[in-house]
Amino acid sequence: MPAAPGAGGKRVVAPPPLEATPTSTPACVLQREVLGAAPSERRHRAASFSHFGLQREWDLYASSAQPWWPPFFLRRRTAVQEVVAALDVVIALAHSGVCAAYDQDSGEPLCYLNVEADEVVRTLFLHHAGPATQLITVSVFSGDAFQRLHVRATPVSALRARRPHAWRPLFETEELRYPGFVEFCDVNGIAVTCSAQSSCFKFFELRAPGQPLWSLPTQGVSDLKIAQGTALLVLRPEAGAPTHELHLKVLDLRDGACLKELRIFLKPSSSGSAAAAAPSGAGSGGNGRCACCGAAVGDGLVGVEVVELFGQHLLVKQAGGPLLILDIAKGGSRAVPAAEFSAPSAFIHLSFNSTFLAFWQTGDAQLWSLEGEWLASLPGAALPTAAAINTIFVGNQQNLI
């Protein structure tokens, strides 16, 4: 997803499971929602969580051995924005940009990841590169007015050894200034950069980020989304093309080859009604601005609130219209009435279960099947902001959230 101004961006995708578990199917999820877990399962869960208690508590703004830290502009206390853990090291990031690492066992502070006095860390990403787990940070600095993104990778083992300076830069050739961005995908092991200076998307393999796998001009692209093994391009209408026609391309994430070209026709009604015609392939798009150059797109189109590609299923929702779920491989579509599904602020695709989680900033989260069936609600799982999805953990079997 495109980054916010001056910020890094990353999509949260549930990891694929190692093996199937019968109790994680949508039908079983629905059964447990209605009937509750079996007595033995309830007893097992109660026993599993009975020993839970507070083990460690840290203060990101505690006094440091470095008298100059934190600098004045980072001393205002703010909420914790992200927490990640690996190799018994816990890394916490506050909304202000203060980032610190702690020893999980002893509780001892290890180091600050703000290696410069004017550095503001914007986001964290853990990359498990074989035995060497690395922490990727995206930062901005006051020296360039907090406008350019700086990406670096630091071995978690170096943080444990209190060596935060043992980092290496990533994507040095890219001028990542607003409205440019960097996006990470843990499922595919891919990073995407968008440089406003070169007007180009570049796709890097995180295991070997020195050279891009392939690149793509941003010209004509309204938005770019990363799915499992594919990249979805939402294209701007060409000159003379119907303003109610939205144009998509699905590309192979490894080499950029076009796998499918898709179109969908939306009813150009100011009332925001549903899509009128069946798709000639399938597709999505919407009003807005180019993910990189900021140019206005989609003039005259009904606003499109949702465009997501989950495997072979495309989700499209116009303002005031139903949620359309289109199977781009087999054809066919299903519609969820607008009264039952409003536009959420964030999604998590559970590919193994053929389901997805939808989150709203107000109200409970919901679990839906890709057949358009409501399966369950998650009371109290409302997100204060869309960025809060970074605080959600999904287990390897995709049955623990």
H and E string: EHHEEEEEEEHEEEEEEEEEEEEEEEEEEE
| Helix/strand/pairing category | mainly beta
Level-1 CATH class name of the domain at 63-174 = Mainly Beta
How many angstroms does the end-to-end distance come to? 22 Å
Q: What share of residues is helical?
A: under 10%
What profile does the largest beta sheet have?
5 strands, mixed
Mean pLDDT: 77
The assigned CATH architecture of the domain at 63-174 is: Beta Barrel
Q: How many separate helices? A: 3
Instruction: Tell me the β content.
Output: 35-45%
Morphology: globular
CATH topology of the domain at 63-174: Thrombin, subunit H
**Total strand segments:** 27
Compute the CA-based radius of gyration: 22 Å
Order of strands across the main sheet: 1-10-11-12-13
Low-pLDDT windows of residues: 1-9, 11-37, 270-301
Region (Disordered): 1-24
Protein name: Transducin WD40 repeat-like superfamily isoform 1
InterPro entries: DUF7899 (IPR057221)
Organism: Micractinium conductrix
Describe this structure in words.
With 401 residues, the chain is mainly β. It has a domain at 63-174: Thrombin, subunit H (Beta Barrel), CATH 2.40.10.480. It has 3 helices and 27 strands. It has helices at 26-35, 39-49, 156-160, and strands spanning 9-10, 80-86, 89-94, 99-103, 109-112, 119-129, 132-141, 150-155, 168-170, 181-185, 190-195, 200-205, 214-217, 221-226, 230-235, 245-252, 258-265, 288-289, 296-297, 304-310, 313-318, 323-327, 333-336, 346-350, 355-359, 365-369, 374-378. The strands form 7 sheets. A 5-stranded mixed β-sheet has the order 1-10-11-12-13, with no helix packed on it. The protein is globular.
